[in-house]
TrEMBL record:
Domain Secretion system C-terminal sorting: 208-273
Protein name per UniProt: T9SS type A sorting domain-containing protein
UniProt entry keywords in alphabetical sequence: Signal
Position of the signal peptide: 1-20
Pfam families, per the entry: Por_Secre_tail (PF18962)
Superkingdom as given in the UniProt entry: Bacteria
TM annotation in the entry: none
InterPro entries in the record: Secre_tail
Amino acid sequence: MKSTTFLMICSLLISIFSFGQTSTEVFETESNGSTSFTDNGVIFNIISHVSTFDIQANYPGTGWNGTANDNRYIDNSGSVAPGASFSIKTTSNLFKVNRFWVFLSNNSLNQNVVGDLTIVGKLSGVTKFSQTKTSGFATSLGSTNGHTLIDLTNLNGQNYSNLIIDELQITLGGAYTYADFDAFTWVKDTNIVLATGEVKAPMENVSIYPNPTSGPLSIKTDENSKAEIYSPEGKLLKSIDIKKGVTDTDIFEFPTGEYLIKTSSGSYKIIKK
C-alpha cells in the first residue's frame, strides 16, 4: 500500500522533531571559580584547552542574559592568552545547541580589534561541525553589554542546532584573547532524534500500519520488543510491549496530528487523522 511507504522517513524527522527540553543557563546560581555547572539536571564540565576558564562572579553587571546585564558567566579573566580555548562537555545526556552570547576582546578589554571565533561541536571526540565566525562582533558595550549572539540555527548560513553532541568547543583567534560566555541555550537530548549521518536505517523486519490512521495501529515485527509513542514536544505518551508477529494497539485518545513511534529498529513518523 502507498500509505505504508510513508512510514520509513527516519532522516526527514531530524529537522522536524526536537524531542528534548530547551533550557537557558545564565550561570547566576553557579559558584565563582567552579569548573562545572548544572542545568536542567545535566552536569557540564568546563574544560580549559588554552588559558583557564571557569565561572566568573567577581564583576557584577558585566554579563548578558540575553535581555539584560547579569552577574555570572564563564570566562578566562585570570589568564588571558592568544588562542584561548575551552569546551563545555557532559558525559550524561547528549545535547544540542541553539545559541549563546559571547564578549570578546584583547587583554585590555578593547573590543575594537580584529579577531575571530571558532565553534566546534563534537560527539565522542568526533567533530560533527566546525565553523569560524570572522565578522559581526560587538565592538562596544551598546545595547547588549558588549556581547555578540552566536546563533547555531544560522551560523555562516548553516543550521547546526539539530546536531547532537556531547562537547561544544570555543576557540579565540586573531587579537581576541579574552572571552566571556553567557546565556547558553541548549536542548537536552533524549536519544529520540539522531544527528545527520547517524540515522538508524529503518529495518525491514518492522512495519507499522495503517498510516495515516484514525486510531487503530498494528506493529509487525519478527522479535519481541518495545515501542514508545512521543508527541512532537518529546513527551512520552504511550509504551507498548511488542510480541513477535503482529501487535495491535490504538491511538484513539490522541488529538489529530503527527507523532513519533520509536522501536529498537528506528524511529517512524505516524499521522492521526
